[in-house]
Every structure is written in structure tokens, then in C-alpha cells.
Design a protein that fits this description.
The chain is mainly alpha-helical. 51% of the residues lie in helices and 0% in strands.
Length: 79
């Protein structure tokens, strides 16, 4: 059996690139979470996930969006 994946290049391949996108406002935490949840959804047929906590991820992303809007310097190294 040969698996064929879309030839879509991943958007966020490094932490530094992702952090820069967050700092400059190109993306929000919620958009980032939705991007990765969509990638997970697209590969569910591979059975590589034990459990996905989508609701919790969306909730935490919303909290971080609000925190970052109030305190932009709070982004830190990895939040």
C-alpha cells in the first residue's frame, strides 16, 4: 500500500519562525491551533493519534490570545 500525501508545504516548520509570526501579528494562537488541528484531521486515517484534545487546545489558545493582546511582552521563549 502506497500512501500519498498532499504536496502542501507545512507553514510552521520551526519554533523561531512560529514565534516571529506570533510576535508580528501574522497569526494568532487560535489560528495556529486550528492549522495543526486541521493537519491532524487530514491524517486521522494513519491511526497515529491516541487522543486529540481539540477543545482544550482551542480554549488555551483563546486565553493566550487575550493575554498576549493585553501584555505583548508576555510571549516569552515558549509562553
Amino acid at each position: 500500500m502506497v500512501l500519498r500525501f498532499q504536496k502542501e508545504k507545512p507553514k510552521y516548520t520551526s519554533l523561531s519562525q512560529t514565534k516571529k509570526s506570533l510576535e508580528t501579528g501574522q497569526i494568532t494562537c487560535s489560528e495556529l491551533v486550528e492549522y495543526f488541528l486541521a493537519r491532524i484531521e487530514a491524517t486521522l486515517n494513519l491511526n497515529i493519534y491516541i487522543e486529540v484534545f481539540a477543545g482544550e487546545a482551542r480554549q488555551r489558545a483563546k486565553q493566550l490570545n487575550e493575554k498576549y493582546q493585553m501584555y505583548p511582552s508576555s510571549l516569552g521563549k515558549l509562553f
